[in-house]
Amino acid sequence: MRTRYATPQRVASGIAVAALLAFPLSSCGSDDDSSASSSSAASSSSSSSSAAPKPVAVVEALSGQNTAIALDKGFTDALASLKLTPGVEGDAKLTDGSLVFPITGGNVSVFEPGSVPNYVVGQIQHEGSGLSLSAGDTTVTLTNLNVDPGVSRVYGDVAVNGETAVTSAYLFELDGSTLKPLQTQGDTAILEGTQVKISDVAAPLLNETFKTDAVKPGLLVGTATITVNTQ
Known about the structure:
Shape: globular
Order of helices and strands: HHEEHEEEEEEEEEEHE
Number of strands: 13
Largest sheet: 13 strands, antiparallel
Helix content: 25-40%
Distance between the termini: 26 Å
Radius of gyration: 22 Å
Number of helices: 4
Oligomer: single chain
């Protein structure tokens, strides 16, 4: 899934385009009106540009570190009740009750909370790793996870018994209301506290595959901690 993000550069470009579009409209008035309108548009554009929030941290090319999801007891209990066995794929690990996916690429910009609607934007890719769920002779794998914090979603590829079922499916929703302020430790930045929940797309897919209706949209999977290199 390739999603466009509201980067600071895109915001600035949008302001410039809006200012240019204002000039043809002003030409319908007198010369004086035109000058006044043009001056006003330029002033507004300058003011908006200077007021555009700037990120407190930008990593243009992510490399290294990981996303760890501390599994919620409600989720593991639900898996047990459905007789589903969780596992990992590729380079992922299941350690001390947390799923850990290595970060393989992407980019991220972090703004001051409250300065923009979604103060973490970009994409965080985890190619070559994922989660598996098995029951009897059926195994579902969710791999190549792509975290899109700007729209609060996680996309990934779904396979059933090794056969691809869906690519770039909307698997998890993210609830950033519990996200803690950005932390820095040496050359790393840490975003902790986002809740990961089953999406309304993944729930019926899992229910159909495992012949159940017990997987509900919004089921809390766990709480994520994203650690990225800043150098």
